Structures are given as structure tokens and as C-alpha cells.
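Side project, low priority. Logging it here so it doesn't get lost.
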Amino acid sequence: MGKVTGFLEIDRRDRRYAPASDRVRHYREFVIPLSQEATRDQAARCMDCGIPYCHSGCPVNNQIPDFNDLVYNDKWQSALQNLQSTNNFPEFTGRVCPAPCEASCTLNIQDVPVTIKTIECAIVDRGWENGWIRPEPPKRKTGHSVGIVGSGPAGLACAQQLARAGHTVHVYEKNAFPGGLLRYGIPDFKLEKSNVARRVAQMEAEGVVFDCNVHVGVDVTAEEMLERHDMIVLSGGAEKPRDLPVTGRDLNGIHFAMDFLPQQNRRVSDEPVGNVTPILAGGKHVIVIGGGDTGSDCIGTSIRQGALSVTQLEILPQPPLKENKALTWPNWPLKLRTSSSQEEGAERDFSVLTRRLIGKNGHVTHLECVRVDDKMQPVAGSEFELRADLVLLAMGFLGPVQEGVIEQLGLDLDPRGNILANTVNYRTSNERVFSCGDMRRGQSLVVWAIREGRQCARAVDLALMGETVLPR
């Protein structure tokens, strides 16, 4: 390492957010990057560990000490090459990944991990600014055709790898534009859609064909897909939401998060919302049920739409402020985290179960709630009500929608309802069909989707060619 004592000499410093009072007025990204010199200093803090646990903490196995050393030595273009050898889309993970690599950093034992996510984002952003990221079309075509269903991060990663290997790749997307969750789920204030659009443009220049407004299993049958392509990859999302089966669920004003969030993303992108009832939080008391990232996205969007108040309910108990490092490190710890959206003015309440939804004239007005103990059992006498004009259900997802292409192909499913395929060859019960990402593993992170897309591409290339040089 270039600065072997850097971690002793330089304090941890990370990107900052624009003030909440400013950022809630718009839907643009609000993270303030570090300067080039400050980023170089942060890279110098990498310890050159004998066993760098950040490698295993990162699902795509980024070579983190290597690109940190390259940044410290001002070899930014080499750092980009290193980073993109393991991660097709660092600008996505550099913005929306929760950074399990930092949790695994040796310096995290003292709560001052290397700012890996910030350095990753700086590398790729500089790559785009300097024109270092260009299309990489194949030198030869194999004559094989692969159809990929779903253009989220798993489908995009799989498509790019296969196209660069020389295969003809068609990506089918039921929406008007590619990107899946990246475009229609994650709000623009976390990931501006220009980041997705320029990757799509790069992939088109590499030969990938995007067939949008095509719902496979509805507009095109599974049989037609098998006729068109040598192999098919199912990389759609885990789109079946967990519902709230309580009295009053049929009242107006109660919506799934993934009905609410895509509407606002379409508005920001000037894309028609479609023939749907507008879901807007302006002037309303909003209740978000579910304490994860999707719930946080609902909070930030509701505040920007002008909600009078936002309350987030979580059925699980409040996590501890800090983890016991001796028990958890280098694994991902359970501790209280506060997102940028939660900082913007949301109230959070834990160990709360919604018992009933109360309404007037067919529209929700209140939630009847009760507190639960550590065994998730109601606590007698703890009942209370909350005012609610809009209730957003962000309680996670139960797996892929099985009606359509999965049903038509008759694929085997695992006990959770996901497509059954292992992580060795990603092959389903149909030898010409592969699956990766949330459709295979269930609801997960963008970085896990990229990993699975890359690995699945290798499995498909091997099946088609008998050999492969694509990395796992």
C-alpha cells in the first residue's frame, strides 16, 4: 500500500447531504461529493489487511484494497478498470448500496471504516466525466440468441456480459423504459435516471436490443420466447407484495408502496402515469407500514409531495443503537439506522401491529394499533389510534408473480415461491431457461442482483459454447 500508516494519520470523512430544508424541495440527488484530494486521502486509510474481509462483505467481491491503492496513487483510470472487472454498474451501487463492505472493514471494529462506497462512486463518476467508460462491443458474434426477461440490475448485468461475449441479446421489459427497480422503484433523489439511461445507451452500442412495452407471458408467450431464442433468462423482480389482511383493508387511500413510488418516478421523468388513480401525499397525514428501504423511499417521496405528517410503523422491536462488535463483526450487524428520508421529518414507532383500518365514507381515516412484545404478541391495554389519510404498505415482497411466464413454463419453485435454480449453473427445471436476481433469490439488494446477473451470464455462456471466459 502507498500509505501504510494512513489509517493512523487520517480521520474518516464521508460525503455530506444538502440540508433537509433545501433537498425536500426537489427530486434531484442531494449528496455532496468529496473533492478529489479528500477522496484520495480517504483511500489512503485502507489498511492493507492480511485478510481483507471487505472482499467477502461485498456481494460482487470488489477488489477494494486494490482500487483504494490506485486512487491513493492517482491512478484513477486503472482504478476504474479494476472496479468494472467485478461490477458492471458501480454508479448504482455507489448510490444505493447499504455498503456491507464497510461493515466488514477492519477499521469498523472502531466504528471508522474506510469510506468504500464514496470512493467507488467517485471512481465511476470520474470515469464518466472523463469519457473513460465507452461501449465494449464484441470482436466476434457467436450466432446464439438469448432472451432476457426483466431489465432490472440482474437482467442488465446478465445482458451486458452476454453481449460482450458475442451473443445476440434481447432484453424484454414490460414498462416503457429499461431499468426495472432502478427506474421505477428507487426515487430520483437517491438515483437520478440519467445514470440508468447512459448505461442503457452504452449497452445498446454494444449490441443489446431492448424490447420495451412487452410483457412476457402476456404479450409474448413462453412458447414464442423459446422459439425466438436459444436460451432464456428470467430476471424479473420479486413483485408480489405482502398485504395487510385486516378489517378495513378495502377502504380507499390504502396502497402498496410499489403502486405509489413508480407514479412519482414517472412524473419526474415526464413519462405518462397511465390510466390509474393518482396516489398523492400532499396535504395528508401519511402512515407508512414497514421499516425497510422501500418504506424510507415512501417517506422521502411523501415529504416532497407536501405531506402534513409522515409516521413509519415497524412491527419488529427497535434495534440497538450500536452492535456488539465482538459478536457481529465482520458480518452485517443489526442496529438502528436512520436514512436520509427519515431525517427529513418522519416519526418512527417500533413494536406496533395494525389491528384494524377505520374509515368514513369509504376512505381511511385512522389506524387501530396495538403494541407487541418480543414474541410478537399484543400487549394488553396498549391499544391506540393514529390519524391516517393515506396508508402505504411497504412490508416486503413474497416472491415473483407466478401467473404468466413462470406458470406457462411450468417451472419448479422453492418453498418460498421463487424460481428453483442453484447458484452453480442458475438453471431452472427447464434446461433452456435460467433465472437470477430477485426472481430466483427473493427480495434482495441491487448489488446481489448484479452479482447473480454476472454469474448467470457465465452459466448461459458455458451452456451455449461449452466453455467460457466470463468471470463468476
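Brief comment: The chain has a mean pLDDT of 97.
Revisit when time allows.
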